[in-house]
Design brief:
Layout: E1 2-9, H1 13-20, H2 24-36, E2 41-45, H3 53-65, E3 72-75, H4 79-88, E4 94-98, H5 102-115, E5 118-122, H6 133-149, E6 157-160, H7 172-186, E7 191-195, H8 206-219, E8 224-227, H9 232-244, H10 252-259
Parallel strand pairs: 1-2, 1-8, 2-3, 3-4, 4-5, 5-6, 6-7, 7-8
Helix pairs in contact: 3-4, 4-5, 6-7, 8-9
Amino acid sequence: MLIVGELINSSRKAIAEAIAARDKAYLQELAVKQVEAGAQIIDVNCGTSLAEEAAVMAWLVDIVQEVVDVPLCIDTPSPAAMEAGLVRHKGKAMINSITAERARWEEVLPLVQRYKPSVIALLMDDGGIPETVEDRLRVAEKLVPDLMGAGVPEEDIYLDPLVKPLGVGSTCGVEVLESTRALRQKYPNVHLICGLSNISYGLPERRLLNRAFMVMCLAVGMDAFILDPLDRPLMSLLAAAKAVAGKDDYCLEYIAAARAGKLVV
């Protein structure tokens, strides 16, 4: 189970302000806290700094890697910013993201082949965000063999079925759950990931929806999440759900978390 800490993202006002002020201490503290809470990868996104995104991304990667030893997820729509982050990254990075859109594929694939990161692949093509399970499978049937044909091993591929907010449509969650089940059956060795908090966008008490959705996704085969690791009830539910789903041998991780005082009810 892979946890990507989502909090260093400039779409959040406090992060945008910290990046603009080059508040290194604040951002580093947030990175450390996420790792201490269980994140195995730290997402770094500075997309609101469009005029200087490449330079800011390089700076972000540098300062975060000063204080944590986990990989970073270079999260940007800009190929220039993505490469700036990959150049500065020590060891194997993750990128967010590549798609089956022709232009995006042609821009990002050379970076994947050059720097060999793990790859989040959004199940989207030039037709836009898929609406159905069948549409998502169709895009996956192009992306997976094309990535593997380009030299990306299965274990480095993270398919993202694209979570839309429940406020957009009441079946958005079910569509992702059904897609995840189908993708897991078709691609047992490929990872499945989602941006968990997308499900609750625009709705009250968002954390409740995020927690419920995470447990349901895990049950149907999702094995990676981009989430807020500082949400202790969320992380506690994750530990419990892994045990119930048979993904924690003899409940050893759950017991260790309980003994360490990490679980909250």
